[in-house]
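Problem 12. The chain below contains 440 residues. Write out its predicted structure in token notation.
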Amino acid sequence: MSGRFTLVSDPVHGFVSIPDGLLRGLVAAPVFQRLRRIRQLGLGFLVYPGAVHTRFEHALGAMALMREALATIREKGTPVSAEEIEGACAAALLHDIGHGPFSHTLEKTLIAPGPDGTPFHHERMSRALMERLNRERDGALDVALAIFDGAHPRPFFHGLVASQLDMDRLDYLRRDAFYTGVAEGVVGVERILKTLRVHPADGAPGSRIVVDQKGLYAVENFLLSRRRMFGQVYLHKTVVAADRLLLSVFARARAARTSIGDDPAILATAPSLAYFMDGTVTAGLFDRPAGDPERERLLDRFVELDDTDVLYSVKRWAEAADRVLADLAQRFILRRLPRVLELEAPASAADVAVWRDRMARRLVADGISTSADAAADAVYYVESGSSRLDAYRPKGDSICLLGRDGALRELSEASDLDAFGTPAIDRHWLVRPKELDGDG
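Solution.
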């Protein structure tokens, strides 16, 4: 890598240096600059006003932590070449370029499952966009792609990019806690980075990232912080309410395009978003070879799309002739969010039907729907679902600690805290408009 670099001031990590050459060029690329217009926490800003940070600064932070982690690993005797450092930093930098508007909120709505039922995940888009960048740069991202795919001959690099203790999680937990003001989410990143090492030390095949025994408490705090952030931020009931409302807006807008296709409000949908509104774009396009016209068209349209297009379109839909769409869009724009009722078990079909019947009568009374359509329209306002809180999985890519005796122990065995051996927690909920609470 070049000895020259650009300094960026980051409120979370201090100064982040971007080396000239490949990494500086990637940051300047339009596909990466687009991340400035993608909110990191989706609709979290509707609950935590300060949470307006973006995927752009998160990606820079992940790259910065990757450089620090590799420096520690080299100090502890694991050889790492300049080419590997550049490749690992590029993989960390680009790992999130496949995120769509408001990050996870619309991920499975914009692009439908493929013909085999496989849902879309942003990692597939990140991989496709990295592949395109690599072609444009004559293979300069070959190492980064191998690390991203887990195909590099030294597997510990992939663990730094995608695992239960990777640079992505270390950055987003600390960053999200900072911007939301949730003190319980603060993570001792420096301590964790200084206790990382590669086992076995030469980084040969089968090698993995482990943590020195003295880093146990820092890792415990990291996982406890992650658990708290899921409970207080990521799965906050008002965030869930906002997510469900926006998804209902999109579902109704798609239906309205078919029934009232010449409505000026519908026709005003941002061009970059309109491509995704007919429901024909599926994850199956990623199975086509690179260079396929339809696949490339999907990538082109996706990188044109950001939070701005969605907000503009929803504001226009608030003027739609379809009164249900207009009402849903206005609720979102004016933050008239539904209420989330937390349940001990999944809502029964009978309970959901009762609430939808209430909503149908309300829609007729308010002049938003007709008696003939009210039952179908109420579905957009009342729904049930579940969210999973899974802070740590003891199996799979588990976190291991290296004892002073040279023995490896999985975290839940090394820790005296019971929380790390417990199964995931499912939260069940029912979403409905607040005004229904006063109806009999």
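Discussion. The first strand starts at residue 5 and ends at 10. Students who got a different answer should revisit the alignment rule from Section 12.3.
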